């Protein structure tokens, strides 16, 4: 099964080897036919602690690393 890849913005880098990435998705509302934006935060593993707040990153789904963390940062 292919692993999902998402793009987002780093909103927090305060944890050691962990960043919080805000991912926005857009879709058309089924009833009102308007474009709706929804955001979700994902915790991602950043081994080298190089990503800072405001950076655009790609994250990839992986095995669970901790209780909340099952994404890793892709170096691209």
TrEMBL record:
Ribosomal protein found in the keyword field: yes
Protein name: Small ribosomal subunit protein uS17
PANTHER family listed in its UniProt record: 40S RIBOSOMAL PROTEIN S11 FAMILY MEMBER, SMALL RIBOSOMAL SUBUNIT PROTEIN US17M
Organism domain of life: Bacteria
Keywords of this entry: Ribonucleoprotein, Ribosomal protein, RNA-binding, rRNA-binding
Classification via HAMAP family: Ribosomal_uS17_B
An example Gene Ontology CC term for this record: ribosome
Role played: One of the primary rRNA binding proteins, it binds specifically to the 5'-end of 16S ribosomal RNA.
Subunit relationships: Part of the 30S ribosomal subunit.
Family designation: Belongs to the universal ribosomal protein uS17 family.
NCBIfam families according to UniProt: PRK05610.1, uS17_bact
One Pfam short name: Ribosomal_S17
Lineage: Bacteria, Pseudomonadati, Pseudomonadota, Alphaproteobacteria, Hyphomicrobiales
């Amino acid at each position: 099964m292919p692993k999902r890849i998402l793009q987002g913005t780093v909103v927090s880098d305060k944890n050691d080897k962990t960043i919080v990435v805000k991912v926005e998705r857009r879709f058309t509302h089924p009833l009102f036919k308007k474009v709706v934006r929804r955001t979700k935060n994902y915790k991602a593993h950043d081994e080298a602690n190089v990503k800072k707040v405001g950076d655009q990153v790609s994250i990839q789904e992986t095995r669970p690393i901790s209780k909340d963390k099952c994404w890793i940062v892709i170096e691209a």
